[in-house]
């Protein structure tokens, strides 16, 4: 049973449709205009279409509910064509004007013969290359012109059991929707699988395989072979093998296509902002005529997990692997495997699934407590999954603190042994049930604001696991039913079933080949483990009512309109300011952001280790007299969270909460500023995790870029350095406090609360929390004077990795602007960036087959006046790094002389405009756009004509921007395998040489 909620009708914030696309917004606003409202927007497409012939009747059991007593989600309409194709359609207006289309083929890598490995994924690529209505490489540009972004709005996925083609179509009209359905039908029903197209696409897939490869992929493949030994899942990696891919021909790929791409293997899910009768009509129009020859082929037998001969039935330990790879963190996986079987997706079945969830939450709470208190592992957890219709498995994963993996495994097993021996206490159960209730109640509260894409995905995912879909009210009903029946004894029984398997398998990953043997791991698993007598958390009551006040409630010195819509601005006598926008447009969602300080600029050169540790441990270190465990107790039964963001020029706390928990969320944030606690355990644990993971950065070029890019891009600014184990070892709790306490005390505070809440209650809550803060200390002048500087664009920075010899990465960056005064310029520059991205993708992927997914991004910081860039990144073979730099230089140079064509600008600008139009239909967007505007009105001024900045871009403007930002030499960085040198010449014949 999967699913979430009912659809939102055509509700939209009118601001993006009026003020953002007009010149009617001024910095001061209007007392009578520019209101942010929600209204029911008339749907011009809402007319009666002829009833689709294959739509199932209301009194007929929809195909997805056959054999189930789960209540039907009435928002869905289902149909089944005579050719066997099934579909589901649903109206949804989130975001407004979008339709999400999913076409699922019941064939993935498990359906491949031995000489077809990788064909399911290759075929996914082939459908985008050429088809009945789309010429070679036309698919992506065609949908870009329709506003769909490549990689997010237009995409596909191949798994072990299915292939899904995805399109999120913005600014939809009946004509645009019909055109898209026609194009998709041509892709699915009539792809052009010629030798030429296969030869063109295979190098791209091989580039993807190369970029995906390396240590992580080797570990994944070895782990998969062990855990699923004897099943097809063990040796059918989705990407395939180089041998089978290079041997592929048009005929061999066509054979795979003919076998599995059939209407009876196809499910189409369409959800969006059009009449569902139109959605169904178009599915039937373009797919009812799909006829294929021959009888359908039965899916292959995926096989069952089976213990080896002679295994002890009471403890059937089977295959064990020790995988030694340098630069990896020690990690244990223990799996209890049972056969996957088709179930009747009934209410009783789902009650049992929820009891399994309850049992695992109890265990994971205990494992987390052991890790926090300084146990032999830094992380451990248990989970359950029905994987690829091949196995129903329970998995335990353990990350040892040091190299004593035996102690870590024993400790984790002892915690689980206690759960298998003794029933949980009622207090433990009530705590986890309260957490589950919040989650399921939250779904019900938010059911009207969940996006179309989520519903479209849920239907195809439900089909993949052979279960039904359900509304959130059904989930809550089943949860309440389970809660009424659950007892400590029934949870104990569920726990025992979870940790019973037909076979038990294990994988130990280590950087030291002499660390363990397979027999050593097997011996550990065969040994009995005593139940941990101290695994359970003692009952403890922590209440907000018992916490000390922040201070004397503050006084409001000003309150009124912020000059835009219904946004209200409040200033307290301690200087704290707040922006509030209360509405019910997104039920159950209240966004809170607290801004203060100067972000990365606030740190000293020696603070790098404490920056990293703060991101992990600042909130976990507690507040007042409360440590991490007490904070967790406070959150029980509430929707409370905390997220620290360190920006270029500001710090922020963020949470998505709900109106009934807003007061407590504000208290937690204010208390963190005013009465921070410095529990050493989270800091020590964060040090251990960061140290253990550091060596993994050297394992691949992409990881090296993640580690080193900002440090070198910003002229080796020490605050951007990823801390080494030696730096972390030197860090201590007192140093952590010395760095972070002044930061929490300094600078003006701005709070933004946008969403579903009571305005007057929130004002009073602010008085008692942020209004009660003591006067803030000033930010030192030396910090205020700091700026960012990009590295010297002279000699290329060269870094090295010790992974695969055929992997490299390259980055090139041009300086760009920064600051709120240039935000409208930044939107135009974003269009130019997309032009560069499209050209680089065409060159490196389509022309040379050298890189699977080169990308270009524009960074225009708004909280500082320096440090922006246009940055391109790609992974490739070492010999192709000069090709990447040459192509990037060529593209930049050409744009400084010749403006983009009108077609290029449409491809670049329309997806951006559509993206921001969709984004601007919610409260979070406006909160993000208005943050900082209490101290800098340019933020509000930049909203004028927001969407117009992406409409009909001028070629002359693009030429001017290119001459301004792309004419100077670019900064460069290359990551090569250890021992190789950066080539200074292009390879003979260009990037394609040697293929």
From TrEMBL:
Task: Provide the Peptidase M16 N-terminal domain boundaries.
Answer: 98-233
Check the record and name the Gene3D superfamilies matching this protein.
Answer: Metalloenzyme, LuxS/M16 peptidase-like
Ranges for the Peptidase M16 C-terminal domain?
249-434, 749-910
Task: List the keywords (alphabetical).
Answer: Hydrolase, Metalloprotease, Protease, Signal, Zinc
Q: Does the keyword Protease apply?
A: yes
- InterPro entries tied to this protein: Metalloenz_LuxS/M16, Pept_M16_N, Peptidase_M16, Peptidase_M16_C
User: Secretion signal: which residues?
Assistant: 1-27
Q: Which domain of life is it from?
A: Bacteria
Give the record's family classification: Belongs to the peptidase M16 family.
Q: Which PANTHER family does the entry link to?
A: NARDILYSIN, PROTEIN YHJJ
Q: What is this protein called?
A: Insulinase family protein
Native source species: Qipengyuania gelatinilytica
């Amino acid at each position: 049973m999967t699913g979430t909620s009912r659809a939102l009708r055509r509700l939209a914030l009118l601001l993006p449709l009026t003020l953002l696309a007009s010149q009617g917004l001024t910095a001061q606003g209007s007392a009578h205009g520019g209101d942010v409202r929600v209204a029911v927007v008339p749907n011009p497409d809402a007319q009666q279409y002829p009833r689709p012939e294959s739509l199932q009747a209301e009194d007929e059991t929809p195909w997805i509910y056959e054999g189930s007593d789960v209540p039907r989600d009435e928002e869905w309409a289902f149909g089944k064509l005579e050719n066997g194709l099934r579909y589901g359609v649903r109206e949804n207006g989130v975001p407004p004007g979008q339709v999400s289309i999913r076409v699922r083929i019941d064939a993935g890598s498990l359906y491949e013969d031995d000489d077809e490995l990788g064909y399911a994924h290759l075929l996914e690529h082939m459908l985008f290359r050429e088809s009945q209505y789309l010429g070679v490489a036309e698919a992506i540009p065609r949908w870009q012109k329709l506003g769909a972004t490549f990689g997010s709005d237009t995409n596909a996925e191949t798994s072990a059991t299915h292939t899904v083609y995805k399109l999120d179509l913005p600014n939809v009209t009946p004509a645009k929707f019909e055109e898209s359905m026609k194009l998709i039908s041509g892709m699915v029903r009539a792809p052009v699988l010629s030798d030429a197209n296969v030869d063109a696409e295979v190098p791209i897939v091989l580039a993807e395989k190369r970029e995906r490869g390396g240590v992580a992929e080797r570990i994944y493949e070895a782990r998969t072979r062990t855990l699923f030994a004897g099943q097809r899942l063990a040796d059918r990696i989705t990407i395939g093998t180089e041998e089978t891919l290079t041997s592929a021909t048009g005929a061999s790929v066509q054979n795979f296509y003919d076998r599995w791409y059939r209407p009876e293997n196809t499910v189409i899910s369409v959800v969006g902002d059009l009449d569902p009768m139109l959605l169904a009509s178009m599915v039937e129009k373009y797919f009812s005529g799909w006829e294929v020859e021959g009888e359908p082929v039965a899916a292959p037998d995926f096989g069952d997990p089976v213990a080896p001969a002679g295994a002890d039935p009471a403890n059937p330990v089977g295959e064990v692997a020790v995988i030694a790879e340098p630069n990896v963190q020690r990690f244990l996986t223990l799996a209890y495997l049972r056969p996957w079987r088709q179930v009747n997706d009934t209410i009783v079945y789902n009650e049992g699934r929820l009891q399994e969830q309850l049992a695992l939450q109890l265990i994971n709470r205990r494992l987390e407590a052991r890790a926090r208190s300084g146990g032999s592992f830094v992380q451990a957890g248990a989970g359950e999954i029905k994987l690829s219709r091949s196995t129903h498995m329970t998995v335990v994963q353990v990350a040892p603190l040091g190299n004593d993996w035996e102690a870590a495994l024993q400790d984790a097993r002892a915690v689980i042994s206690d759960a298998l021996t003794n029933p949980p206490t009622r207090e433990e159960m009530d705590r986890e049930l309260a957490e589950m209730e919040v989650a399921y109640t939250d779904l019900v509260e938010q059911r009207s604001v969940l996006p179309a894409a989520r519903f479209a995905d849920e239907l195809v995912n439900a089909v993949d696991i052979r279960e039904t879909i359900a509304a959130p009210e059904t989930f809550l009903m089943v949860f309440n039913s389970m809660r009424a029946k659950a007892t400590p004894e029934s949870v104990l029984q569920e726990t025992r079933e979870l940790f019973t398997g037909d076979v038990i398998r294990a994988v130990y990953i280590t950087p030291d080949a002499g660390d363990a043997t397979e027999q050593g791991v097997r011996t550990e698993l065969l040994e009995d483990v005593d139940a941990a007598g101290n695994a359970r958390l003692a009952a403890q009551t922590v209440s907000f009512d018992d916490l000390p006040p922040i201070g004397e409630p503050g006084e409001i010195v000003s309150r009124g309109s912020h000059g835009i819509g219904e946004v209200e601005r409040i200033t307290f006598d301690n200087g704290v300011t707040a922006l509030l926008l209360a509405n019910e447009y997104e039920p159950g969602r209240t966004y809170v952001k607290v801004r203060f300080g100067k972000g990365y600029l606030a740190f000293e050169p020696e603070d790098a280790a404490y920056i990293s540790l703060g991101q992990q441990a600042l909130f976990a270190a507690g507040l007042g007299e409360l440590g991490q465990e007490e904070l967790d107790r406070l959150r029980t039964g509430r929707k409370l969270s905390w997220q620290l963001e360190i920006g270029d020029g500001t710090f922020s706390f963020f949470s998505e909460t709900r109106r009934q928990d807003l007061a407590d969320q504000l208290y937690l944030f204010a208390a963190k500023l005013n009465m921070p606690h410095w529990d050493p355990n989270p800091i020590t644990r964060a040090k251990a995790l960061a140290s253990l993971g550091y060596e993994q950065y050297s394992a691949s070029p992409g990881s090296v870029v993640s580690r080193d890019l900002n440090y070198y891009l910003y002229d080796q600014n020490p605050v951007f350095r990823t801390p080494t184990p030696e730096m972390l070892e030197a860090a201590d709790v007192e140093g952590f406090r010395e760095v972070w306490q002044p930061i929490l005390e300094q600078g003006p505070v701005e709070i933004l609360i946008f969403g579903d809440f009571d305005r007057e209650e929130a004002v009073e809550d602010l008085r008692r929390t942020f209004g009660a803060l003591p006067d803030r200390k000033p930010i030192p002048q030396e910090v205020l004077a700091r700026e960012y500087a990009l590295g010297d664009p002279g000699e290329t920075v060269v870094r090295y990795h010790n992974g695969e010899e055929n992997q490299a990465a390259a980055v090139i960056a041009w300086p760009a602007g920064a600051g709120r005064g240039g935000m409208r310029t930044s939107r135009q520059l974003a269009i130019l960036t997309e032009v560069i991205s499209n050209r680089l993708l065409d060159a490196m992927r389509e022309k040379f087959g050298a890189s699977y997914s080169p990308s270009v991004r524009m960074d225009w910081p708004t909280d500082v006046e320096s440090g922006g860039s246009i940055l391109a990144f790609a992974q490739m073979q070492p010999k192709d790094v000069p090709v990447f730099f040459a192509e990037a230089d060529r593209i930049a140079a050409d744009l400084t002389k010749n403006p983009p064509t009108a077609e290029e600008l449409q491809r670049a600008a329309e997806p951006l405009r559509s993206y921001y139009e969709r984004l601007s239909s919610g409260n979070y967007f406006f909160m993000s756009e208005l943050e900082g505007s209490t101290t800098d009105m340019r933020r509000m001024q930049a909203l004028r004509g927001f969407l117009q900045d992406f409409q009909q871009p001028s070629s002359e403007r693009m030429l001017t921007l290119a001459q301004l930002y792309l004419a100077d030499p670019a900064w460069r960085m290359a990551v090569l395998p250890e021992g190789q040198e950066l080539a200074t010449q292009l390879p003979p014949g260009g990037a394609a040489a040697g293929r």
